[in-house]
Amino acid sequence: MSHTATTPTQQTQQPPSHPPTKQPSQTTTRVVVAVGAILIVALVIFILVGGPQPDAKPVSLGFSFNSFFRWIGEMGPIVQIPLVLVIFAAVVGLLLLLIEYAPRHGTGYFWLRLVTSFAIPLLAFMMLRPYQNAVVYVVIIALITGGLLFYADHRARQGAGYLYQLTLFLAPALIMLLVGLIYPAISTIVQSFYDKTGDNFVGMDNYVWAFTNPQGFWSIINTLIWAVFVPIFATVVGLAYAAFMERARGERLLKVLVFMPFAIAPVSISLIWKFVYDYRQGDQIGLLNAIVVAFGGQPVRWLDTWPLVNTFCLLIAFVWAQTGFAMVILSAAIKAVPVEQLEAAQLDGTTAWQRFINVTVPGIRTSIVVVLTTITIAALKLYDIVAVMTGGRSNSTVLGFEMVNQQQRFQSYGHAAALAVLIFVFVAPLIVYNVIQLRKQREVR
Amino acid sequence: MAVETATTPKFDRSAARKVARETRRNEAQAQKRLTSPVATVIAILIAFLWTIPTLGLLITSFRPGADSATTGWWTVFTGPDFTLDNYQEALTSGGTALTLGQSFLNSLAITIPVTVFVISIAALGAYAFAWMDFKGRGFLFVAIFALQIVPIQMALVPLLSLFSRGLEIAGVGIFPGLELREIDHSFATMWIAHVMFGLPLSIFLLHNFMAEIPSDVIEAARVDGAGHGQIFFRIILPLSMPILASFAIFEFVWVWNDLLVATIFAPTSSLPMTQTLNSLSGSWGDRWYLVSAGAFLVLVVPMIVFLALQRFFVRGLMAGATKG
């Protein structure tokens, strides 16, 4: 174990090269890793100091993610499926082999860890094709990263190889989350303080715009209307249906009928409901106007009648889709309410309704909260239904749609970013609440 | 069965009958929980309201175009007249853009790989959270769960520019973007984006399931000399099949039905059905016979998956909602 005095890429690492104890000092490890991290940051700054180089060419090893995606993109869609799955399986298989073999003791495994620690980051970075001016720095960064990983792993408290396999398990997910969610979120927040082009700092202007411009203003108001009414409607109807259908004949089939819309694509949902709301002169083909006309009324332009009418028409389509979700969760919760409690209440001479309100509902309180928060979050993020049914006309827009609208139609990134940040701000309290609940649950465990 | 009852002593049988009778009575009483005429009427009304819109569209999609343009779909009950031409036309008419038939293949090529990618990557991560000890594990896990705080809308623009322009810091290019513009069927950006957006929830759900697996099983394997790779692949994965299956269905339906990610990331030649239907329904305008047939073509695959694997689907949902 101690025969391996490794000297990774830093000169700074000299200390106890042959520690007498089996446990290497954790402080030293931490210091070295910190120094390495600083070194990486310094290298990034070095690249930036070089300044923009407009005609720099990408450097690759002859193969890259880009060339792979180009190669596979030339094939037919159906051919791509097995092809990409086989390649993915091969990569994951390799990963698992490394996880299994690399942590073992022995010189061969030691070298396996050493080589792969350096090779994997290097390969990953080179497959991204760094520009000419950056390539040297990128290679050094990759080697330092690999070296630090190997060093920290080798001196880890749990023994060499533990950190190595942990990294392999977690790295794919963490890298994707970092690149796909954390970096974009930060970038969007920054962007929301810049103008259309993203070059000039404008302070809070985009947020002022969002609250004063009709599109922005109505999207905020409507989103709040959605966030209040959708969860309430969906939960009340779902709860009523679950309670009434409890142990009824044909329970399963009747539940599937209500649950089915949850699996329907929002695009199809929108078209289904557009058809219900259809407006025309003469004979009606939309159900709602046909009913209105049958009762002697005038047909109504449901989706263009502002205020509130069009928003509620859209909102009902979403409620229609979400009720099944509420129903399924609440139905399972109702089944889990102890029968003894209900029987005890029954002996006390309570009516069915009293039992429902005083025993069942408190018994499924947590489930109700989960359903409410989940549907609220979905309503806050909603895009599809508004996009397909009205395209935001007649002030029916919502934040989730208006954001894409600003970005796609008006190329106005600042406004789009500000609207996206507003969704984030509205969603945040709900997720924070969920996190608190989660932490409580984990403490109980 | 008959033989068994014959050999059972008589007095036991009457006692059993009595118990059964009482149970039945109790059950009947319990059944009375909320069943009143009003409740039944409301329930049936809900079931009716929740079925009618879909039924209307389904019927329209089978009616001749001339009929559905002038009369409501409910008139079909007095003079039925059906055709399959609408589906034929909806699948093949696309003008210069993609047809629904072509984008059906695209939808498959997006959805199937994404489902596999998300589950595999999430399973690896979830295993580490469930069965490996490291500092900051609890914090990191909660942080990943909390990432659901980021609405997809927030990630769209920066991710798109990362894909097309690559990584630039302060104007200095480090990595170039992907050059996939002129490629026939490039799904790469869709795959990557969907995987990224699907990870927080899937890691959370898979972890909750994996953490409940009895530790004896894993200890036993460790004593036998299995490393984490083997334990993961040969013990945890097979035991986690229920959650993997249910989340796979969930993810499949979710990706198939997605419109937002497709709107932003899919190149014109690789649009999935949802996006194609959305743009076609604009040009079809009032031709409801086409719109309705198209809407049904889009919902048919997730509906089959859903109806066939309903149990798993619901289980996945429950795992998500009740937090393990």
Structure, explained:
The complex is a heterodimer of chains A (445) and B (324). With 445 residues, chain A is mainly α. Chain A folds into two domains: 166 residues, no CATH class; 239 residues, MetI-like (MetI-like fold). Chain A is 70% helix and 0% strand. The N terminus of chain A is likely disordered. Chain B is mainly α and 324 residues long. Chain B has two domains: 88 residues, no CATH class; 230 residues, MetI-like (MetI-like fold, Orthogonal Bundle). In chain B, 73% of the residues lie in helices and 2% in strands. Chain B is built from 16 helices and two strands. Chain B has a two-stranded antiparallel sheet. In chain B, strand 1 and strand 2 form a beta hairpin. In chain B, helix 5 crosses helix 15. Chains A and B meet through helix 1, helix 2, helix 3, helix 5 and helix 6 of A and helix 2, helix 3, helix 4, helix 6 and helix 7 of B.
